[in-house]
Amino acid sequence: MCGIVGYVGYRDAASVCKDGLMHLEYRGYDSYGIASLSPKLSVFKSVGKISNAKNISSLKGTCAIGHTRWATHGVPSEINAHPLTDCGDKIAVVHNGIIENYAKLKAALIKRGHVFKSETDTEVIPHLIEEKYTGNLLDAVSKILPMLEGSYAILAVAEGENTIVAARKGSPLVLGVGDSEYIFASDAVPLIDYTKNVIYLEDGDIAEVKSDGYKIFNGKKIVKHPISKIEWDASVVRKSGFPHYMLKEIFEQPDVFSNTIQSVKENKEVVALIKKASSITVVACGTSANASMIFSYMMEAVCKIPTRVVVGSEYKYFPTPASSLVIGVSQSGETADTISALKISKDMGAKTIAVTNVLGSSITRTADVVLYTRAGPEVSVAATKSFTAQVAAFIEIVNLVSGKKLEPAVSDILRYLPDVVSADVSSAVELCKNASTLLYVGRGMFYPVAMEGALKMKEISYIHAEGYAAGELKHGPFALLCRETPVAALCLHGATYSVMMSNLKEIKARNAPLVAVGEAGDQDLEDLCDVFIPLPKVSEYAGIILSSVILQIMAYHCAVALGRDVDMPRNLAKSVTVE
Ligand code: G6P
């Protein structure tokens, strides 16, 4: 949600901002804007996709700030788009986060004669800066920050200074340190074309950046944060010949799986904490919650440690006893509900772990211990490789905690995943793409796999899909079964196989078309279903990853067949930074 980019250096700053914002498109947005200094302040704003922006070439200069807005206060419109300016249009600000006391500040500013143009909470910031500005932007921003309540990542520029002043509290902001050039962004992805050197700003930081250097303050003190190296290459954030990022990311999964396993092996602290835990609570949202549910099944079945999953937004109603270990799982590391759940549990005295894919993300500052899944940046809104990475991390954790009980699963996945990513699912797509409702069913660990398959399908194809524990179908969803309601079933050999077969017969008896993912050579299953998708004979734990990938490909090809915006589905944001 909301993307920020700022550049000061020697290049055409507005183009750098535009390219950077295009790298952040996956965060989700409805309007965008850029302000540049040349030396006069010029602003261009519009509604829609930034790739369609024609007039950005009119913005000159080597210092600019830009923003993609996901509307919270005020409708998506050119006026409400950032950057927002002061009365004299000499100061411009972009902001990610929410200024909770903006109404009070705005009323006071209006009384003092300020005229507001937008309905946003953000606009109070340039007006407040205007009141304190006497030729030094750093000074003015430092004076107004204590007045702001809420969360923010802010970039500000003022006519007459080729400088960006940035501030961070609760919303992500990184600074790329190049050679006589500096680039701010909401995450490291836009930096990669200019530098691999990155500083993760901390809450309370204020940075002043000019083309010849930068200073970071926290309070009144200058602080020296370490410069980290971005671990991945620019190719990771290019489509590299694939029609969509989602397909590319699906194909990256075999490499991701190995990277994640390695990351867990190197992280002794996480495994040690889990070994000691008498109970575990996992908090997560969306796809991360589905991966976490797989973890809970594995922990209980293999390690015998009671493990429950609570979705981030519900955690405050189910707080955990302080003796429980709490694990926050978030691909982006920025999901507000997951972070606030971790904060609540920390305040109650629980030990906390963050499992995330993004280095330096907000969740890493909240938890006591961090495990990086190392899937590389994920651009498509629908999570694929980051899900596999989370499940891979969980498999390896369980493997290490249990004394290598899951070793066969790890080798099966390494062996078969490279072929499974290009499995043929065309008949399943034909059967599902025109449905208005789809049901996904599985038992045991395949129940969360079914939920994740359904989530993928609804996110990107807009077909209504629900994942159910196969045994639950009779308790309501059976009423939906008819020739027009296809069912996708996960029916691999193992503990759940025979009862799944009975459930599938009941489904077929109601005439619902059936797509089944099963073990190659399973003639009974193949005879029963309409479309059979074979997987190699693997351990049950490997089957969860391989069948999840099949469901990702099915959703992808359905969405393509329906002409959907696969990488940026309507109304969704990759990083949900509001509760
Ligand atoms: C958003 C995304 C989902 C994601 C969820 C949790 O809704 O669209 O793909 O699963 O947030 O995100 P996280 O970054 O915390 O895993």
Description:
The chain has 17 helices and 25 strands. With 579 residues, it is of the alpha/beta class. Helix 3 (124-132) packs across helix 4, helix 8 runs parallel beside helix 11 and helix 14 (446-461) packs parallel to helix 17. It is globular. The protein starts with a strand and ends in an 18-residue tail after the last helix. The chain binds 6-O-phosphono-alpha-D-glucopyranose.
User: How much is the radius of gyration in Å?
Assistant: 25 Å
Q: How much of the residues is beta strand, in percent?
A: 15-25%
SS-based class: alpha/beta
Most strands sheet: 8 strands, antiparallel
Whole-number mean pLDDT: 94
Number of H/I helices: 17
Shape: globular
Ends distance = 12 Å
**Taking strands numbered 1, 2, ... along the chain, how are they ordered across the largest sheet?**
3-2-4-1-10-9-11-15
Uncertain stretches of 5 or more adjacent residues: none
Name every ligand kind in the structure. 6-O-phosphono-alpha-D-glucopyranose
DSSP strand tally: 25
Helix content: 25-40%
